[in-house]
Amino acid sequence: MFSSGVSELVLVVRDVRSSARFYEEVVGLTPEKEADDEWAWFWAGTPGEAQRIALRKGPLLFEQHSPRPEGERWGAVHYAFEVPRDRLDDAIGHVRSKGVEVYGPVNLDWMDAVSYYFYDPDANLIEWWSRRDR
Questions:
Q1: CATH number, domain at 94?
Q2: Average pLDDT over every residue of 69-90
Q3: Which of 59, 122, 124, 129 sits between 20 and 30 A of 74, alpha carbons compared?
């Protein structure tokens, strides 16, 4: 294995500043720096460690080399954040208090976990999952 972890995930969004507010206020991520009209960067875990979420308006690097046709080179994604079990109920309550619909729980017996799902303003599906033993 060559990788030691995920460094970043870049989401293409319609409005960076609006989506940045969602990721800070609803998802609870810590901004790496202030968002501008083109980029917003967040720490997805402990600040300073190489796990980040970025929001981007405009094309991705090397998009012109994609095997997919123009207009279909990127789109909504699904990704998950691990939330400690003792904080999961509070996290879900926080998202709901912001007026965001939350789906679940979904029991993931194959990994002894439970998950909840909600959408960001650009229709990306966010999963908050928690191991039952933690």
A1: 3.10.180.10
A2: 86
A3: 129
